[in-house]
Amino acid sequence: MFIPRDGHDHVTSPVEKTSAHGRTRRMAEAVCRWCGRLRYELAPAAATFGMTCLGWLHHAAGVAPSSYVGYGLGVAATAGLTWGGLKFKSPVATSLGVASVGTVLNTAIGAVTGPSVPSLIAGGVVTIASYAVYVPWLVKTRHERFNLQIKAAKTAPLPDGMGVNIGQPGVTGDTEEETALRRALVALGVPAVDVSRIVFTDTGWHALVTLPPGKNTSAQAVIAKRQQLQANLDLPGRLRLSEGAQANQLLVRLQTTDPLAGPGIPWPGVGVTSIEQPIPIGIYPDGSEVLIDIVDGHVLIAGGTNKGKSGAVNVLAGNLVACDDVLLAGIDMKPGALELGPWRDNMVALADDPDTARQVLVWLKSEMTRRGKYLSTLRGPKGERVKKWTRKHGKYIVLIIDELAELLRQAPDVASELMTLMQVSRAMGIRIIAATQSPSEQAFGGKGTDTRQQFGVRIGLPVNEPTPINMIMGTGAYGQGWRLDELDLPGKCMVSSERYTAPNEGRCFWISEGQILETSLEHAPAGEDAAEDVRPHPHPHPDPDPEPTPPTPPGGGGPHGGRPVLRAVPVYPDGSRIEENRLPLWRALEKAGPEGLTKGEAVRMGICNHHSSISPWLSQWVGQGWVEETGKRDRSVVFVLSAAQHTPAGETTDDSKESASCPASM
Ligand SMILES: Nc1ncnc2c1ncn2[C@@H]1O[C@H](COP(=O)(O)OP(=O)(O)OP(=O)(O)O)[C@@H](O)[C@H]1O
């Protein structure tokens, strides 16, 4: 089982654990808790031990002759009670008489002999005898009490005052809260078999309830009735329920104060210098930081509209731009890259539409291949193969995708590309941080290409209904207490990762626009250096042969995988995209200019062959008015592009030019 690195169990405050008298206090508390839980079982042993000690005290103080008389009278009286009980067939009087005889005798022996073997033997005999009588009584009483609770649950709310006196069977606990909890469970029809002693913390209290066997008494079933239980409990605070270590164990937490409430927790500024350090994105109620280990896996940030996704993305971006071992790239599907725009200068590429997004992914894939080949040439100290990228191999690449669902909706074809990247790229030092507000299966590429499994770190923000919770946090998460629907403020979050395996509510820092701009400015590479701000591999390129060198986008890609150039997409004069297979013909027409082009010439240029027909395309373009038939050459029709001026300049002949709309220096 995974043990969280900070050893924080998310229930007991670590502050509590590490306080000055921590260890002794915790031990004393544990003993008290244990005694409290077993109070009924321990009662006879405690009584016998107490009376033996009193006898020894009497011995130490000196036993006067009159005391012997007193003890004698005591034994006679209790023996008389026993005899009367037997005679009048009163089990209570008989039991009481037997117990009293034993106790008085034991005390008398202790008083006469002091701490001695006979006294210990007497104490032992009395203890064993008392348990012989007590255990059957205790079992019977518990059965009766349990049956009473079930009966009460089946019939109606409990009558007033029921079980207030612990001498009577009834629904009671050690504290007011435990009694309320027990009664609330009874009213729900699920009387607790056991309630651990309630632990009070700075923010409320928690207890572990063992549920009874039955038809609808599992922890999951009770969790589903949380609202009813909260109403039954009738205590101020927010009730949280999660499954314990076993299916019949319910962890009940009542939060009475919320230290995370308020307008927001200001971002304290950059907290890391390397991506290999955990990035703090917020805090937990006990004051510990919510840490994200990007090196551990791809990161998913999901939540409802206006619940703080961009805030979380920006806090991560703000830290990543300050890491000198990271190259940042972005895909922001909000038109104009509204969210990631401020980090433009800190990124090697920022795409804001499906086409440029495709190019970023192609670049990443080629970079992944190149890095894989590079790693394959390396050997460890014992000649072993190197299978994991670290900062000594070069910079990590982090791709931030804002609105993942929108990307896959607008460009469904990139789903498989993304899947490949997510599955393979981690070992090559590439990480993806994806934010989305509609985490449906479709939003992750649909069946077969569902990328969700690849997210090792998941940051769940508030959602409006429970349905998407399992989509975000994983199968069964809702029942295990990942209640994103109960997060009541924007920016509140639950993080699931190798570090955090149990649900715990935290709150992300709030980063202001001013902080974003300031951080971006402070860490943006200076001027022209930006394009070259790529640390070359410590070794020469592993494969000097140009063939296996992974392709970098034409005109872009610095040495050893520099920044990609995002190019404008070739379009027809009406703005629609020129299909891949028709592009060579269109280009050839552009190049031919007023001279025009015949089909024979196109065949000779290798654009098509005699069997493939380009006529329908040309007819279509003629119909659109983009191409004209100007006569015949060598008995073939000459086609002239009459709309060349409409074609984006960057796509005509000069491959090295950047797109004005999406330059490499973005
Ligand atoms: N960590 C936070 N602390 C306090 N308030 C926050 C926090 N995060 C978000 N908010 C509040 O919620 C609002 C919306 O936040 P944000 O834009 O990050 O949400 P979003 O989920 O990205 O929105 P969208 O669904 O439009 O993408 C913010 O304007 C701010 O008032």
Automatic annotation (TrEMBL):
<dbReference type="Pfam" id="PF01580">
    <property type="entry name" value="FtsK_SpoIIIE"/>
</dbReference>
<dbReference type="InterPro" id="IPR002543">
    <property type="entry name" value="FtsK_dom"/>
</dbReference>
<feature type="compositionally biased region" description="Pro residues">
    <location>
        <begin position="547"/>
        <end position="556"/>
    </location>
</feature>
<feature type="region of interest" description="Disordered">
    <location>
        <begin position="645"/>
        <end position="666"/>
    </location>
</feature>
<keyword id="KW-0067">ATP-binding</keyword>
<feature type="compositionally biased region" description="Basic and acidic residues">
    <location>
        <begin position="532"/>
        <end position="544"/>
    </location>
</feature>
<feature type="region of interest" description="Disordered">
    <location>
        <begin position="524"/>
        <end position="568"/>
    </location>
</feature>
<dbReference type="InterPro" id="IPR027417">
    <property type="entry name" value="P-loop_NTPase"/>
</dbReference>
<keyword id="KW-0547">Nucleotide-binding</keyword>
<feature type="domain" description="FtsK">
    <location>
        <begin position="287"/>
        <end position="470"/>
    </location>
</feature>
<feature type="binding site">
    <location>
        <begin position="303"/>
        <end position="310"/>
    </location>
    <ligand>
        <name>ATP</name>
    </ligand>
</feature>
<feature type="region of interest" description="Disordered">
    <location>
        <begin position="1"/>
        <end position="22"/>
    </location>
</feature>
<protein>
    <submittedName>
        <fullName>FtsK/SpoIIIE domain-containing protein</fullName>
    </submittedName>
</protein>
<feature type="compositionally biased region" description="Basic and acidic residues">
    <location>
        <begin position="1"/>
        <end position="11"/>
    </location>
</feature>
<dbReference type="InterPro" id="IPR050206">
    <property type="entry name" value="FtsK/SpoIIIE/SftA"/>
</dbReference>
